[in-house]
Amino acid sequence: MLEIKNLHARIAEDGTEIIRGLNLTVKAGEVAAIMGPNGSGKSTLSYILAGRKDYEVTEGDILYNGESILELDPSERAAKGIFLAFQYPVEIPGVATMQFLKVAMNEQRKARGEDELKTPDFIKLVKEAAASLQINPDMLKRPLNVGFSGGEKKRAEILQMKLLAPQLCVLDETDSGLDIDALKIVSDGVNALRSPDRAVIVITHYQRLLEYIVPDSVHVLYQGQVIKSGGKDLAHDLEANGYTGIIEAAA
Ligand code: ADP
Ligand code: MG
Ligand code: MG
Known about the structure:
9 helices; AAA+_ATPase
């Protein structure tokens, strides 16, 4: 579903190369974890997948279902079923969360040539999804992410993901700022999205999240490259031994 080939990318503003020859393949049905020390380029990779203009791809390619997405803008990527939950979710003042969700769902339907959702149907879908994530209905009336706690922001991201049912989900440090109860709720939400025709990429610093979302593959990112890939046991090794051994072996 996703094939990243020898990707090189730099910060558009100053030309600093952050992604330096990254290779990664994620199949439909797979949950892939990307781990790596702070500053290794994990969030940058998620921004590049989203199509943010702050980064320039200078070499390599990103294939999604066999086609390059490099020329697509962020909304075209979203319409094709790519969803990114960022480490720092964007605040949207003045737009109630409910309204935001309605627009997002209808945009997606429009892109697929489907009719707009009828309001009662929309409300039913949102209420059910919110309840499953233990989101207080009052939160849906507030502007998206404005004044939300860390945990509320993460739940709001998973709520969007549930409603938009993307094919490729990328979650950047969804565990940061979550207490153990919220972590379980969010993980259950992600696990419910597992399906044979969907791929999930979980970016995380710690192994803890991977106790709840058990990955099929684990990839270690360091200095803009995948330096080691393995199965779920690789995450346990990292927890026990840290990144140093793997980094030295790669060097
Ligand atoms: P991670 O998510 O793995 O912690 P990031 O992708 O956030 O790492 O950052 C990788 C490196 O790139 C860091 O050194 C960071 O400071 C730098 N970086 C990323 N984006 C920018 C930017 N827009 N401007 C300046 N530096 C950036
Ligand atoms: Mg970081
Ligand atoms: Mg990051």
